[in-house]
C-alpha cells in the first residue's frame, strides 16, 4: 500500500511506498 500520493509538475501521480520507493504513474503507465 502506498501513501503520500502527490501530483508533480509533470502531471504524474507519485506514490511513495512503505519501503520509501517512489513510483510515478503517468497516463496509467507505471515508471520506477
From TrEMBL:
Task: Point out the coiled-coil segments of this chain.
Answer: none
Protein name as catalogued: Biotin protein ligase C-terminal domain-containing protein
Q: Which organism does this sequence originate in?
A: marine sediment metagenome
User: What is a single Pfam family found in this protein's UniProt entry?
Assistant: BPL_C
UniProt domain Biotin protein ligase C-terminal: residue ranges: 1-31
Amino acid at each position: 500500500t502506498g501513501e503520500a500520493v502527490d501530483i508533480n509538475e509533470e502531471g504524474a501521480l507519485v506514490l511513495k511506498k512503505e519501503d520509501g520507493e517512489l513510483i510515478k504513474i503517468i497516463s496509467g503507465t507505471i515508471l520506477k
